[in-house]
Design a protein that fits this description.
Strand content: 5-15%
Mean pLDDT: 93
Structural class: alpha/beta
Number of domains: 1
Radius of gyration: 20 Å
Shape: globular
Order of helices and strands: HEEHEHHEHEHEHEHHEH
Bound molecules: iron/sulfur cluster, magnesium ion
CATH superfamily: Thiamin diphosphate (ThDP)-binding fold, Pyr/PP domains
């Protein structure tokens, strides 16, 4: 497989320079590294600029209601736990309309790979305030500045005991592709929140703005041998307390001016190995619904069990 094998005949309609292009490229690169073919996995999309990807990425896809890709994907996992399921969502879709589903899916720990196009704005509807928009930002829906404190999806996912929590940057395709591969290979609920410049409606969080601030957590990690020899500790994503502190480096806690923040960590912030929801479901002991030979008699029997 090569990236072009995952292209449909449609031309992307994203604005030239949009971070969505880098995320599309990263996902294709990750699918190839994972050995996935267009007929061997499913991507469930939300509504937003990110959701246009269903038209450009050649793989099984489903796009439904705004904010609801996670419950759809969870349902697919319960019916067919052998299917590799990705969810592509946006900050508005996932942390606004879909916030309850985000918390529920992370707590349940469904085996899903969630990739969020976090551009801190509602792009498709032309630039309104989103859940991740910085306090004080003036948009067409908050002309006097945002009053609410922004959502910190990384801290939230860690506190919901998600199994794998990472942040990537749409302007670093090889690094983001590697994070998606790691997320997909890690069992359980995996979040890759991605810094995605919206070049049309956000003139602050540009590619240079991010490049000046981001650093890679793996650069702060030390091999175990070096740690033992020097006594210095690197970043350890399996350390819950360290991960929570790291999650609050950006966005900063209330009271700190975001303009003064010059460090944004990307990479794997947290990982653990909680059992997945699916693996604990006794109803799947006799095999998933997708594996049954659905004769009329069997369907009638199944319906009887719900009476
Ligand atoms: Fe990308 Fe923003 Fe244009 Fe949407 S509006 S395609 S997020 S640049
Ligand atoms: Mg958005």
């Amino acid at each position: 497989m090569n990236p072009a094998d995952f292209n449909t005949t449609n031309t992307p309609t994203w604005c030239p320079g949009c971070g969505d292009f880098g995320m599309w490229a990263s996902l294709k690169e990750a699918l190839i590294k994972l050995g996935i073919t267009p007929d061997s996995a499913l991507v469930v999309y939300g509504i937003g600029c990110h959701g246009h990807m269903i038209n450009f990425l050649k793989i099984y896809g489903f796009q439904g209601l705004h904010g609801r890709p996670l419950p759809v994907a969870a349902g697919v996992r319960l019916v067919n736990p052998d299917l590799n399921v990705f969810v592509v969502s946006g900050d508005g879709d996932c942390y606004g309309e879909g916030m309850g589903h985000f918390i529920a899916a992370a707590r349940a720990n469904y085996n899903l790979t969630l990739i969020v196009h976090n551009n801190q704005v509602y792009g498709l509807t032309t630039g309104q305030t989103a859940p991740t928009t910085d306090q004080g930002t003036k948009t067409k829906s908050t002309p006097l500045g945002v009053i609410d404190f922004p959502v910190n999806p990384i801290a939230l996912a860690i506190n919901c005991e998600a199994n794998f929590v990472a942040r990537g940057f749409a302007g670093d395709i090889p690094h983001l592709a590697d994070l998606i591969v790691q997320a997909n290979q890690h069992p359980g609920f995996s979040l890759v929140d991605v810094l995605q410049p919206c070049v049309t409606y956000d003139k602050v969080h540009t590619y240079p703005w991010y490049r000046e601030r981001i650093y890679k957590l793996e650069d702060k990690s030390l091999p175990a041998l070096t740690s033992r020899m020097t006594g210095r500790q690197g970043y350890d994503p399996t350390n819950f307390e360290q991960a929570i502190l790291k999650a609050w480096e950006w966005p900063p806690k209330a009271g700190i001016d975001t303009a003064t923040v010059d460090q944004i960590p990307i990479g794997v912030l947290f990982k653990q190995n909680r059992p997945t929801f699916e693996s604990q479901l006794p109803q799947l002991d006799n095999g998933p619904l997708a594996g049954l030979n659905l004769t009329k008699t069997l369907i009638d029997d199944l319906i009887e069990t719900f009476k």
